[in-house]
Write a sequence for this structure.
């Protein structure tokens, strides 16, 4: 073996996913007969709606089994452009849309074509754990912009302005947010846009994958619709995973300036090629169809989010921003004096509750609980958490 070892520096720098580590431990304990309750899921526990599955089956039986255009089926790109134009009020053509292998590949491709060494990514924290890894794989550095549960995990325009340097290349916005459930209001987006108008070198990626999952009283805004004058430097990531319960289908999209979409498409053509052809026809049925199924699942998540929020609010020693969207709660448990990995390991070992340590999301004071579980499981998880915290 050569002295440098087998792995590239890029591979050595990659952080393994803590979410997967906890899930693996929970699975192992369960296999050994332990009674484990999991509030760690990052995916809807619903099945993909029947009409979507039927469309994919029909496409499969109808021979949609060959290579397609790398950037996606033309009809699906058209349908996504129409949705983004009409539902999100961002005028978009099919040439400005790339169909990707989930929102994750949309982010990966985008970061690869926008970023390089010397570029800095501005990342409001807490953040979804893949952003920093994807940024670093593109050679960029990451500057975190921290926030607190007490203040609703808001990105403050003054702090954003102060963090911007000539090297700042890309700001990451994620609303509704994983892991905090924070939803940016229109006024907050306008204030962020005002800062960005003074810094034309800063591009923006807006991850809207949880757009349909909103607590009552909250509205989703696309950043490119709030700041249309900045639209040529705003890139939007979205997908079918969360809203339509299609996590395993691996279909997302990237929308933005045509030049960047063309570059991301070229990258995709040399790496993964098109997303599974017949799966794209299922996605086409989903996006072209009625939103009734999406709203029904979102309504069920509202019931569960409320159950989780009220249960956590009733516990002493926790600081919680009531989640405004997505399907997570991210309480600050620093009062108990344990780092988040120790706390999560002890929760699993002592009361059989699997949740994700906040350090994975850039905040070691917190833990992430998911409400993508049945109300009975959520109730059970809350009781276990209460029992554990009471024992400390
Ligand atoms: C904020 C956020 N963005 C993107 C993704 C990626 O979703 P996909 O399954 O479409 O790749 C996730 C998945 O958990 C997420 O939480």
């Amino acid at each position: 073996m050569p002295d440098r070892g087998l792995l590239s520096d890029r591979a050595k720098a990659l952080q393994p996913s803590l979410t997967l580590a906890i899930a693996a431990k929970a699975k192992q304990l369960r296999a050994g007969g332990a009674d484990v309750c999991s509030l760690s899921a990052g995916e809807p526990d619903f099945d993909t709606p029947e009409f979507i599955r039927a469309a994919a089956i029909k496409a499969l039986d109808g021979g949609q089994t060959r290579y397609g255009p790398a950037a996606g089926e033309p009809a699906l790109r058209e349908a996504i452009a129409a949705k983004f134009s009409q539902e999100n009020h961002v005028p978009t053509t099919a040439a400005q849309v790339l169909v990707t292998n989930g929102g994750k590949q949309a982010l990966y491709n985008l970061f690869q074509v926008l970023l390089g060494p010397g570029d800095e990514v501005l990342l409001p924290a807490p953040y979804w754990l893949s952003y920093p890894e994807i940024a670093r794989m593109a050679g960029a550095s990451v500057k975190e912009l921290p926030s607190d549960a007490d203040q609703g995990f808001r990105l403050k325009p003054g702090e954003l302005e102060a963090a911007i340097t000539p090297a700042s290349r890309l700001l990451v916005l994620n609303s509704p947010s994983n892991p905090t459930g924070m939803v940016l209001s229109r006024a907050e987006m306008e204030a962020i846009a005002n800062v960005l108008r003074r810094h034309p070198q800063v591009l923006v990626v807006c991850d809207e994958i949880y757009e349909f999952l909103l607590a009552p009283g909250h509205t989703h805004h696309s950043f490119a619709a709030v700041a249309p004058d900045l639209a040529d430097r705003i890139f939007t990531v979205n997908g079918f995973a969360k809203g339509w319960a299609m996590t395993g289908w691996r279909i997302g999209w990237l929308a933005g300036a045509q030049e960047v979409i063309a570059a991301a498409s070229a990258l995709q053509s040399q790496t993964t090629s098109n997303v599974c052809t017949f799966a794209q026809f299922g996605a086409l049925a989903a996006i072209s169809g009625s939103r009734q199924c999406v709203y029904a699942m979102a309504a069920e998540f509202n019931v569960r989010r409320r159950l989780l929020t009220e249960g956590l609010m009733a516990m002493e020693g926790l600081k919680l921003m009531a989640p405004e969207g997505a399907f997570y709660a991210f309480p600050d448990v620093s009062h108990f004096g344990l780092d988040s990995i120790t706390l999560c390991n002890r929760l699993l070992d002592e009361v059989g509750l699997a949740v994700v340590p906040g350090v994975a999301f850039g905040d070691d004071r917190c833990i992430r609980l998911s409400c993508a579980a049945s109300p009975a499981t959520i109730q059970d998880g809350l009781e276990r958490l209460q029992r554990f915290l009471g024992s400390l």
Q: What stands out?
A: The chain has two domains: 9-47+293-391, 50-288. The mean pLDDT is 96.
